[in-house]
Every structure is written in structure tokens, then in C-alpha cells.
Write a structure and sequence with these properties.
By secondary structure, the protein is of the alpha+beta class. The protein is built from 2 helices and 11 strands; from the N terminus they run H-E-E-E-E-E-E-E-E-E-E-E-H.
Length: 236
């Protein structure tokens, strides 16, 4: 085998191995309890979905507890039912009274617990999703942390409660979290349309289209002429 061919095969093999390691790393990094909100707009409501994979080789996941923030707390918390899992919203007295929407709040939902029956525990190579409706979200730029505790049937409890810091490596057990954003301005949505510019653009586009058509037709005609000449020459 030529040396150039060997180098090519070596390059392909190296690239394949690198891709495999990257894929493995991505899979390992994604094997965390994570949360995905459908909206992050401040002062609004959102649906959040927790993705809970089973990371044990010998036990199943039987319980999940998610802690909710208390300063400010959510004034609205509801749970989407999951087959085979019993959900419970825990309401407790807050460490200190807070003002939310002009009202003083002294107690609120501080955690949500999901417990599985035996048939619906999360086994090896499986995951389950759990959803909440939450509101209202705090001011824009706030990191909403939702620490979770994952309990296994062998008694092991994994706490996903470590804060992620920008510019630093992801911790071993990061807390599910997201950052709130400001509401979009309605003023930017009503941008006036320049009709003259639109007309000019349309004329320019049609000019390009017609020019392309003419080029194609001209090329076709030229090809037919050349073909006719070759046919006449061969007939002599």
C-alpha cells in the first residue's frame, strides 16, 4: 500500500476515534438531572420539564425531590401527573416574609416530591420527565436554581445542588437552573416598510430572473446550432 494511502487511512481512523470519544463525553455530560423551561420571561409564567436519567448500574430511581426558591417564592405551583408516580407539593412557612406583586407572602410552596410505585421506577438505560407550571418568574437576569435530590432503591441519594459558575468547569452534580430574561419590546416589532425600496428590490430580482432565463435559452439555442453543424458535417 502506498504511503499516501496509509496516511489517508490513518487520518480517517484518528478522526473516527476522536468523534467517538467526543460523543461519549457528550453522553456522559448530558447524564444529569436537567431542567428546560418553555419561557424565561420575567414576571411571567412558565412550564419547566425535568429530565431524570438513571445513572446506577444496579439500582432504580424511586424518588425525586425538587426544591423551590424562597426569595422570591413562586406564588403559583402546579404539577403535571406522571403515570405511576405520586406527586406532592410541600408548602411551608418562609424563612422571612417577602413582598410579591405588592402582597406580603409568609408561606409558599418550597418543594415538590415525586415517588414511584414499584412498576414505574426508572431502571438502567432509562429516564423520566417531570413537569411543573411555575410563576411568577423573578426579575430579568436572575438565575433560578431548582436543586434536586434523586433517590435510588438501594438507599443512595444523589444531590444535584452545585452552583455553576461562568468560566469554570461544570461541577460533578450541577443544580438544574435557568436565567430569566426581559420581555421583548413591542416597539421594535412595528418596523415601517419602505414601499419604494421594496419595489426596487422586486424589479431587481425580476431582472436577475429574466437574465438567467435568457442565458439558459441562449445556451440551448447555441447547443442546437452546434449539434446541427456536427450532424451536417457527418453527413458529407
Amino acid at each position: 500500500m502506498k504511503s499516501s494511502a496509509r496516511r489517508t487511512l490513518k487520518t480517517i481512523a484518528t478522526g473516527t476515534l476522536a468523534a467517538a470519544f467526543l460523543a461519549a463525553g457528550a453522553a456522559a455530560a448530558s447524564a444529569h438531572v436537567k431542567v428546560a423551561p418553555d419561557s424565561t420571561t420575567a414576571s411571567g409564567y412558565t412550564h419547566v420539564t425535568f429530565s431524570v436519567p438513571n445513572e446506577s448500574d444496579s439500582a432504580k430511581t424511586s424518588k425525586l425531590v425538587v426544591k423551590l426558591p424562597t426569595d422570591p417564592p413562586f406564588t403559583s405551583v402546579s404539577v403535571k401527573p406522571v403515570d405511576g408516580w405520586t406527586a406532592k407539593v410541600i408548602t411551608t412557612k418562609l424563612p422571612k416574609a417577602v413582598t410579591v406583586g405588592g402582597s406580603t407572602v409568609t408561606e409558599a410552596a418550597t418543594s415538590v416530591e415525586w415517588t414511584a410505585d414499584t412498576a414505574h421506577q426508572i431502571g438502567q438505560n432509562e429516564y423520566q420527565t417531570f413537569s411543573l407550571s411555575l410563576g411568577k418568574l423573578p426579575a430579568a437576569g436572575t438565575t433560578v436554581m431548582l436543586p434536586a435530590a434523586q433517590t435510588y432503591t438501594d438507599g443512595t441519594v444523589v444531590n444535584w445542588d452545585q452552583k455553576m459558575v461562568a468560566g469554570q468547569a461544570e461541577p460533578e452534580h450541577p443544580a438544574p437552573s435557568f436565567v430569566t430574561t426581559a420581555a421583548e419590546s413591542t416597539a421594535t416589532a412595528a418596523t415601517p416598510i419602505n414601499m419604494d425600496q421594496t419595489s426596487n428590490n422586486a424589479v431587481g430580482i425580476w431582472g436577475i430572473v429574466l437574465g438567467a432565463v435568457a442565458l439558459v435559452l441562449g445556451g440551448t439555442a447555441l447547443g442546437m446550432v452546434l449539434a446541427g453543424r456536427r450532424k451536417a458535417s457527418s453527413a458529407k
